[in-house]
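Batch job 17 of 40 flagged for manual review because the log was empty.
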Amino acid sequence: MKKEIKKIVLAYSGGLDTSVMITWLKENYNNPEIIAVSGDVGQADELDGLEEKALNTGASKFYALDLKDEFVEDYIFPCLKANAVYENVYLLGTAFARPIIGKGLVDIALKEGADAICHGCTGKGNDQVRFELAIKAFAPEMQIIAPWRTWELKSREDEIEYAEKHNIPLKINRETNYSKDKNIWHLSHEGLDLEDPMNEPKYDDILEMGVTPEKAPDVPTYITLEFEKGIPVALDGKKMKGQELLLALNKVGGENGIGIIDMVENRLVGMKSRGVYETPGGTILYKAHELLESITLDKETQHFKQHVAIKFGEILYNGLWFTPLRESLSAFVDKTSETVNGSVKLKLYKGTISSAGISSPDTLYSEQIASFGEDDSYDQNDSAGFINLFGLPIKVKAMSDAKKK
C-alpha cells in the first residue's frame, strides 16, 4: 500500500460501498485523513444524516455539494436537446450525474490539498470509468483509489459482514440489497433477482418514483410543455426553473405509470447487465422535445441529428463528457435548437404518452402544402420530372440487365 498518502477525498454516498470504505481506507493506508464529499444531484432523503454518519465512522470533514441546478441545466438539458439515448431506450440517468460529481470531487481535493481521490465503483461497472475520466480531465496527476479492484471484500454480502463487524450503520439488509442509484432524473435498480433475465421484476417491491401502468388512473392526464431553444421553460402555462419543472413532471409521470423500463444493456467494460430504470419526468421531456422538433427542423437536419443522438448517448455513457468531441457536438446541437420553440400538449395514460397538439412560431409544417387538395405552392405535375431524374440510376441498371439476357 502507498503509505505516503495522508489525505484522501472520498466520493461518499452513504450507500453500502462507501459506508465501509472510510474504515477500510484507514486500516489499509496507515490511518489517513478522510474527507467525505457528497454531490447532491437530487437524491433527496438518501442524503439525510450523511454528515453525522461520515464523521462518526472516521471522516474528518464532510462536504455536501448542492449541484442540482447545475446538473439539470448544464448536463441534463444539453443531452435532452441532443435527444441523447443509449441503445434506443436508456435515458442515461446514472451516466448524467457522474461528470459533475467527478468535477466536484476534484474541486474539493485541490482545495484541501488531498493526495488521492477514492470512489466506490466496482471493477465491473461503467461508473469507475466515468468518475476517473472526469478526474483526469481536471487533475491529471491525481492518484485514484478504487478499493473494489483490490480489497478482500468480493461481494456485497462480504461488505455487509464487514459493516456489521465494525459497527457501521447501514440502511439496507441482505433481503433488500438491490444496487440503486437515485438522482433528480431517475432511479435504477440492479442485482438480486434482476440478475436473471428470466425473472419478471417485482415492481410492487422496487418502484419508488411511480406506479405500474396497471395501477395508473383509468382516465388520461393532459399536460402542456413550452420550450425555448430546445429547453423546457414552462408546464401548463407556469414558468419554472429546470429543477422545479423536472420534479413536477416526475410526479405526474410517476402517477401515470410513465418511464419504467426493464433492459439488458451492454456495459462499456464489455459485459451485459440487466436493470430496471424509473425515469418518469425525463421520458415525458424526451417525447415532447422529439414532437416539437418534428415540426421545427428541416428534413436533413432532423435525420442527421438522429445520428448525433446515438453518438451523443454513447459519449455520455462511456464517460467522455469532458472531451472536444462532446463540446463540438453540443455546439452543433445548440445551433439546431435555435428554432425549437413552441408548445406541446401531451396525453398521459397508463404508461403511454401521445401527442395532443404541437405548435411553434418556427414551424415548418404547412397545412396548405401538405393538403391533398390544390394549392398555389406545389405543382403536382412537377413530380413526374423529379421521379424521372431520381429513378434514372434504376432505369439505366434495368436497361443494362436487359441487354445481357
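Reviewer: the log was empty due to a logging misconfiguration, but the result itself is present. Residues 124 and 269 are 7 Å apart (CA to CA). Unflagging and moving on to job 18.
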